[in-house]
Specification:
mainly beta, seven-stranded mixed sheet, four-stranded antiparallel sheet, about 60% strand, elongated
Amino acid sequence: QVHVVESGGGLAQPGGSLRLSCTVSGRVFSVKDMAWHRQAPGKQRELVAVVSNSGTTTYADSVQGRFTISRDNAQNTIFLQMNNLKPEDTAVYYCNVDYLKMDGDQLHDMYSWGEGTLVTVSS
């Protein structure tokens, strides 16, 4: 099985910082893109940041300049450094992994999600 595990969520005050981590483990042939999404109650899940295998990063406008996504390919881990947090950043943050899985003699493009980690920004 492939497991995606997030950590680092919690409570922060406006203007504070949190650092999220996500690690994928299991029978993964190779990892492609990795991304952070978030979902607030009653809202659609939205993309926060994505980092490609080559290191190219993309951010939602709402977090540009405040959040930084990074990647450790050797550990199949990504991080999300969240600075200058705002109450509107409150959400469950999910790690999404796009990877290649070997199934028998065939390679399949797969997606896995973590269970999510709650980030609450409140004073």
